[in-house]
Design a protein that fits this description.
- It is a single chain.
- By secondary structure, the protein is an alpha/beta fold.
- The protein folds into 2 domains: 216 residues, Glycerol-3-phosphate (1)-acyltransferase, CATH 3.40.1130; 60 residues, no CATH class.
- The chain is built from 16 helices and 7 strands.
- It has a 7-stranded mixed β-sheet, with helices on both faces.
- α6 links the parallel β3 and β4.
- α4 crosses α5 and α8 crosses α13.
- The N and C termini lie far apart (44 Å).
- 36% of the residues are buried.
């Protein structure tokens, strides 16, 4: 059932563990995450792993914490006290980093005594056996990217059916981005098409259909936007031509997101969408229902998004104002400007356009907060 979509089952873990341990990159990855590790002993312990729970508890949680220790100043959070450990949720999140957005949520769920969620994993990211094995051992399931129009509905129905099955039958929460792919320009917006996809796996009326999924918005905010200069370059090129990814570009973005300094990070779990809110949405015509629901989710994410000094600095620089000068000091402003100028030097293109695109990535969350 759902063989092309689902994560691994526990009985598939030992074989996947053996494949990962034999991969030539295994030692390199372990040395990055734990420079003092005894590789032979680590491999021996790694090969003893038999279940998804063991893989996450013995490998992934510590790996993510090590990544955060190397690349961030702090991780704060809010809203976990509102979650019920006996309930499953459809976590609909803003999406800034390919790996860490969902991974950080998993660590925090675990540290709050809750089961981890399953995670959507774009088929474009399943490049090579190592990434696929690690992803599917970590409860990631496949969502098709770049399919033809003919296959789009079939693929959407498969994913929708699987997510509903995971929540209502497997009793597993699910993480999914609010849109197809990462937010590149800093303006988090929920795509109505994602919400429509949720609904097509059930014949129930609108409110009953979506209420059983327990849609729960999640907002993650980074002081330094992951892959900010790569996003700037993509947005610049996209102004003039269709942007086509280079081979291996997604993997490069994953690695840069892991290693890049992120400063402070905050993750906020926001209140679950209520039946009453769904009832209000249901009063509208078919497409309007999903548009209204997207607005509610957007407002939750904007409310949970934490603005940093960099966001206010970028806003003031972009708009040639001192409106938010009380949110940062001259030293922080100069440091951000130096960071921007150094990064933009590596990108070919009109300097002013590149500068404005880069500043927009950081300034748009301020714009969103202003309404």
């Amino acid at each position: 059932m759902f063989e092309e979509t689902r994560p691994y089952h526990d009985d598939e873990i030992p074989a996947a563990i053996a494949r990962v341990a034999e991969n030539p990159l295994f030692e390199t990855i372990i040395r990055y995450l734990n420079p003092n590790a005894d590789i032979a002993q680590y491999r021996k312990n790694f090969l003893r792993i038999q279940t998804i729970r063991e893989f996450q508890s013995q490998v992934m949680f510590q790996a993510i914490r090590n990544i955060l220790q190397k690349s961030s100043e702090s991780l704060t959070y809010s809203g976990f006290d509102t979650l019920d450990a006996g309930r499953q949720y459809m976590f609909v999140a803003n999406h800034r980093d390919i790996l860490l957005d969902a991974a950080i949520l998993q660590v925090l769920l675990h540290e709050h005594g809750m089961d981890t969620s399953e995670i959507t994993f774009g088929s474009n990211l399943m490049q090579g056996g190592l990434v696929t094995d690690v992803g599917k051992m970590n409860k990631m399931f496949r969502i098709v990217r770049g399919s033809t129009a003919h296959d789009f509905y079939r693929n959407s129905l498969e994913v929708s059916s699987y997510m509903r099955y995971a929540i209502t039958k497997k009793k597993q929460s699910v993480w999914i981005a609010q849109r197809n792919g990462r937010t590149k320009d800093g303006a988090d917006r929920t795509e109505s098409a994602v919400l429509k996809m949720f609904s097509i796996s059930s014949p129930l009326p609108f409110t009953d259909n979506l209420d059983e999924l327990h849609i729960t918005p999640v907002a993650i905010s980074y002081e330094y936007e992951p892959c900010d200069f790569l996003k700037t370059q993509e947005l610049f090129i996209s102004q003039y031509q269709l942007y086509i990814k280079e081979p291996g570009e997604d993997l490069h973005s994953i690695l840069q997101g892991i290693t890049q300094a992120k400063g402070h990070i905050h993750l906020a779990v926001m209140p679950t969408i209520t039946r009453e809110e769904l009832d209000e949405c249901a009063l509208r015509e078919k497409n309007g229902r999903f548009t209204a629901l997207a607005r509610i989710i957007d407002q939750r994410i904007q409310d949970g998004y934490r603005l940093w000094g960099n966001n206010y600095i970028a806003y003031d620089l972009l708009h040639h104002t001192n409106r938010f000068a009380d949110q940062y000091n001259p030293e922080e402003r100069n440091r951000f400007i130096d960071y921007m100028l150094q990064g933009l030097r590596a990108i070919k293109g009109d300097e002013e356009e590149l500068r404005n695109i880069f500043l927009g990535i950081y300034a748009n969350p301020v714009e969103s907060k202003q309404g």
